[in-house]
Amino acid sequence: MSVSIVRKRGFRKLPAKTHAIMFPLILSLLMSGVVSTIATLKAVGLEAGIVPRILQAWGLSYAIAFPTALLVMPVVRRIVGALVETPGR
Known about the structure:
- By secondary structure, the protein is mainly α.
- The protein has a domain at about 20-80.
- Helix content is about 65%, strand content about 5%.
- It has two helices and two strands.
- The chain has helices at about 20-45, 50-85; strands spanning about 5-10, 10.
- A two-stranded antiparallel sheet has the order 1-2.
- A hairpin with a 2-residue loop joins strand 1 (about 5-10) and strand 2.
- Helix 1 packs across helix 2.
- It is extended.
- The mean pLDDT is about 90.
């Protein structure tokens, strides 16, 4: 069994075993950022000093979103598995 290192844009890919952490990490980062930005803009409007307020809200949201994503991911996989056909079955 040969192990090849895939290089793209100058860095190595992470091992496959990190998928279970990286997927919810990136998903919750992006989702909490979008939701925090929209909620902050809706609450205070587009004013001077809005970026630090968004980043502060995003930090709090992400601190909650990532652990939550880790906890609910197995439940979501089961629900999706019950709703979506598996190829070859």
